[in-house]
Every structure is written in structure tokens, then in C-alpha cells.
UniProtKB/TrEMBL annotation:
It comes from Labrus bergylta (ballan wrasse). Residues 39-62, 238-272 are annotated as: Disordered. InterPro entries: CFAP_domain-containing (IPR051147). PANTHER family: COILED-COIL DOMAIN-CONTAINING PROTEIN 42 LIKE-2-LIKE (PTHR21683:SF2), COILED-COIL DOMAIN-CONTAINING PROTEIN 42 LIKE-2-LIKE-RELATED (PTHR21683). Residues 117-176 form a coiled coil. Keywords: Coiled coil. Residues 247-272 have a biased composition (Basic and acidic residues). This is DUF4200 domain-containing protein.
Amino acid sequence: MKKQALESLKERTQKMQEKIRIQTELHVELKMLHKEEDASLAAERAEKERTQELRSQEEERRLEEEHVQLMERKEELKSQVERHALYNKYMERVVQMTKFEDVQQLTNHLESLLHFKEQLYQREAESDQQLEEKKKAQVTLKDRHVLVRRQRTSELSQLQAELTGTLSEVASWEKKWNHIQETAAKKTLQLGEIKMAALNAFELTGGNEDEEEPVDINDTEKQLEKVQKFFQDHDEFLRHHQAPSPTHKDNGQGKKQEYRLHAETKLGSAER
């Protein structure tokens, strides 16, 4: 029994030792891991500190350079103030000779004058631009006027040529009209002579004596018909109641024919 207990205890002791060994190895590995993590953190921290240091140094250099620039600007402004002090004194003297109360008021007035001057320059520039545009427009209108004038001159020349032709045609028609009027006047005169001759012959043959229907004084055709009938009646009468000699007969017949031919010719001219 004791042997078995001892073996059991020994076995348990071995197991406990094995666990202790395992625990010890784990503890060692964990400790080594912690050391590695601490080293990494330390390195990271050191890198951050180094970066921060570099940034700080860079910022310090920048500030130093800015300080130097500001000091230089300060010296420059100080020099300008010293140079402008003379102008300030001059302005103060000018103020004393003017109605202004102080230098600031005079400066404001001068600034307003400068502003007004700039406005005048701007207006002058705008006026010059408008004048230039108007000049261009005037040139364009002038060119257009010249073109229109040339067109009107060409049209006038064409119209003058047409007028010359028309006047020539009018002169020709006037000549023809004058000829027509002269011819008409001659015809009218001849017609009047024929009417008078026919009326005289009608009256010589007796006129409207013993006529139931009198012939109108202007009816030349009827008058000539009456004259012709008168000749025919008297020809018949002479042939039946007179035996003239051949010579006398020929003379009388010739005169009748001549008178009849003259009357018919006059009548034919009047009808035409």
C-alpha cells in the first residue's frame, strides 16, 4: 500500500514538475515578449521624439528667419518714417498756409482730389473710346453714302439716257402729229370748199324750190344727188327738144362731163 502510494505520489510529483516546467517556459516566453514589445515601443517613442525635435528645430529656424525679416522690415519702416518726417514737416507748413486744420484733413482732401482725377481720366478714356467708335461709324456711313451716291449717279445716267430716247420719240411723234394736223386742216379746208361748191351748185339748180322735203344745208350728199338729177333731167330735155350741130353738141357734152367729173372728184375727196 505504501509503495503504491509512493508511486502515485511520485507520479503526481512528476506531473506537477512538468506543469511547473511548462509554466516556467511560458513565463519566460511571456517575459521575452514583453521585453520585445517594450523595445519596439521605446524605439517608436524615440523616433517620435526625434521627429518632434526636428520639427521643433525647423520651427525655431523659421521663427528666427521671420524674426530677422521683421527686424529688417522694422528698420526699413523706421528709415521710411525718418525720410518722410521731412514731408510731414512740409505738410504741417502747408496746413498753416491753408484753411485745413491738420495734416490728416489736408491728406484726405488730396486723396479725394486724386480720386476725382482718376475718375476724370476714366471718363476721358471712355469719351475717347466713344469718339473713336463714332469716327468708325462715320467712316462706315461715309462709305455707304459714297456707294449710294454712285448707285444714284448710275441710275441718273440711265434715266437721262431713257429721257433722251423718250424726248427723241416725243419729237418724232410731235412731227407726225403736226403732219396729221396739217393734213387734217387741208382736208377740212378741202371739205369746206367742196361743201360750198356743192351748196352753190345745188342753189344754182333751184335749191329747195318746189321740194316737199327740203334738203338740209349740211347734207352735201343729198345736194349732189339733186344736182346730178338736175343734170340728168336737162340732158333728157335737150336731147328731145334740141338738135344742135355736132360741134355745139360736143362742146356742151364736154362741159357737162367736165362739170360732173369735177363735182364727183370733190365729193370723193370729201368722203375720203
